Amino acid sequence: MDNRVYYGQYSLKHWLDLILKKNVILPEYQRFFVWDEDKVRMLIKALKNSQFVPPITIGAFSIDGATQNLILDGQQRLTTVLLAYLGLFPDKDLFKGTVDRLANENDDDVDGDDQLDNILQWNFKKLTEKGNNKAAILDQITPGNYKVIDFEIDEDFLKKTFLGFSYLVPQNSDQQVQQKYYSSVFRSINVAGQRLFSQESRASLYFLKDGLRDFFDPPYMKRITIKNYSTESTLDFLRFLALLSQYAKEGNANNVAAGFKSKMEDYYEEYIYSVAGEEPSPKYRPFLEIFLDGNFQPRFEKLDQTIRELNIPAQFTSIIEMDTYLFGLIYAIIFEGKDIDTTRREELIVDIDAKIAEFKSVDAHKKAPSALKYLRARITSSIEIYNNYLHG
To answer: Ranges for the GmrSD restriction endonucleases N-terminal domain (predicted)?
Structure first.
């Protein structure tokens, strides 16, 4: 039987009821709330003026006989409605200022930062976890991270203003079939007209198979960042997994990412499907060859522990530095199941820094570090360095 799609519209009040009662929820892979205050005001104005607003897309997902209604497209719009109703806005500058103030206070009893919502990584779950109605939520708000704003809406507006929806119902109850269907749906949606970053867009594919999100995107790796000039981004762990998986399959870096020079995102997606999909790609070493019982957590915990013991930098200023420090480390522990002799840390760091300096002495490498020949050189050199510091 074909998958079905139903169409309709709900009043804003009904949407709020669904959100507050958690009858519609965000899938884990959904991005954070990214709209600024001006965009929120623009949407409220459009609704007040009866202008067209793109409908919300909801998908029914069945697990063990119970159905969850997932928000596939429209998180930013529904969050805006909720914020306008509550008269709040998550303010990043206010949050940062509050955290800095608390950190600088000398009062040992100050622990207010523990009660703050992390506005830098925020979605409406932060609010619905506080209560299922306006009064309950507002009562749990800690001053210092939300701005109070009057969006000039009332109950009459909420009851008489409507927002459309499409409701997707897959006709197959198999969980993995549904996951694959919704991953493809999410990938094809232009979320509120605002382009997804590669890592955000890719994250929908982690939904293909339960239990693998922390494999593709382990939380502890998010503390490592790379900062170039005014841009700072978290480490893309999937990139390391994909490139090293091909290295592990072929035994060298000679053909790593060959043919994908201008389409590396396709390369990473192929790796995700190889691990989480129905058929492994011949390009990569099979997941179950590396983790015989499918349990990757012990090696991941070992990697986290070793990063701490080696005092690997939490922030890099170039991809050359980051790759040289991490490719060999990740390969030895995750793909080979080996341990690093952390008692020789000082020698190891000297070797790594010397190799980084060598790479940076080549102007072409500095100017085009993403070129495949330089990427392969970093993979090979990093693995060779760490091979000299293995236990036993």
So the answer is: 21-207
Type of residue numbered 48:
K
Pairing verdict, β 56-63 and 66-73: antiparallel
Residue whose token pair is 């500095």: 366
Query: Six-digit token pair at 51?
Result: 């202008």
CA separation for the pair 122, 345 (Å, rounded): 37
Decide: 183 and 71 in contact? Cβ < 8 Å: no
pTM to 2 decimal places: 0.63
Q: What is the mean pLDDT of residues 238-255?
A: 96
Kind of pairing between the strands at 225-228 and 315-316: parallel
One-letter amino acid for residue 260 of the chain: F
Around Cβ 185, how many Cβ atoms within 10 Å? 18
Question: What span, in angstroms and rounded, lies between the C-alpha atoms of 175 and 7?
Answer: 24
**Residue bearing tokens 């480390």:** 329
How many CB atoms neighbour CB 216 within 10 A?
A: 20
Q: Tell me how far apart the alpha carbons of residues 128 and 307 are, in angstroms, rounded to a whole number.
A: 36
Burial class of residue 21, CB neighbours in 10 A (0-12, 13-18, 19+) = exposed
Cα–Cα distance measured from residue 388 to residue 391, given in angstroms and rounded to the nearest whole number: 9
pLDDT category, 196, cuts 50, 70, 90?
very low
Give the chain's mean pLDDT.
86
Q: How far apart are CA 53 and CA 187, in angstroms?
A: 21
Alpha-carbon distance 36 to 43, whole Å? 11
In which band, very low, low, confident or very high, does the pLDDT at 108 lie, cut at 50, 70 and 90?
very low
Which residues is 90 bridged to in the sheet?
A: 146
Separation CA 330–CA 126 (nearest Å): 33
The radius of gyration of the chain from alpha carbons, rounded to an integer in Å, stands at 24
Separation CA 76–CA 72 (nearest Å): 11
Please name which of 276, 273, 269, 295 lies closest in space to residue 209, comparing C-alpha atoms. Answer: 276
Asked whether the predicted pLDDT for residue 313 surpasses 60, the reply is: yes
Backbone torsion region of residue 337, taken as left when φ is above 0, otherwise alpha when ψ lies between -120 and 50, otherwise beta: left
- Please say whether the beta carbons of 134 and 86 come within 8 A: yes
